């Protein structure tokens, strides 16, 4: 007898679906999900070094450098010498990067609204609270997709 899918399966199913749909949305602004995540991380705390960003995102430093390089060529990120340690570069958004992050915020809100359309506001808050507790218990870094660990270097 088939038993109904459990919550863990539903989380995986919805997570994979949501990640694909988000990838489609950010491709409209010519970004990949890892690039979008990096831009959001820099926006949250500008001026961190590439090494600190790589550690926070859990990605190989060489992969982070490639992501920063691509976004710098596009004119949305810039490296500045760290005034406290000239061996390090601090990563900052440019004006164009700040606008792109605002666009990403709009896309993310639309994504969440579309995905959670069957739920009312209270149900959305409850779901976010419950999922946040599970994520914290699993040791996941808030705001960081665990897929960064799987990016090739």
Task: Give me some keywords for this one.
globular, single chain, three-stranded antiparallel beta sheet, mainly alpha, 6 helices, 153 residues
The overall pLDDT, averaged over residues, is 90
Helix content: 55-70%
Give me the oligomer status.
Answer: single chain
- Series of H and E elements: HHEHHEEHH
How would you classify the helix and strand content by structural class?
Answer: mainly alpha
From the N-terminal CA to the C-terminal CA, the straight-line distance is: 45 Å
Tally of strands: 3
The order of strands across the largest sheet is 1-3-2
Rg, Å, rounded: 17 Å
* Biggest beta sheet summary: 3 strands, antiparallel
How would you characterize the overall build of this protein?
By secondary structure, the protein is mostly helical. It has 6 helices and 3 strands; from the N terminus they run H-H-E-H-H-E-E-H-H. Strands 1-3-2 form a 3-stranded antiparallel sheet. It is globular.
SSE topology sketch:
Elements lengths: L6 H21 L5 H12 L3 E2 H8 L3 H14 L2 E6 L2 E9 L1 H21 L5 H17 L16
Antiparallel strand pairs: 1-3, 2-3
Helix pairs in contact: 1-5, 2-5, 3-4
Brief rundown of the structure:
The protein is mainly alpha-helical and 153 residues long.
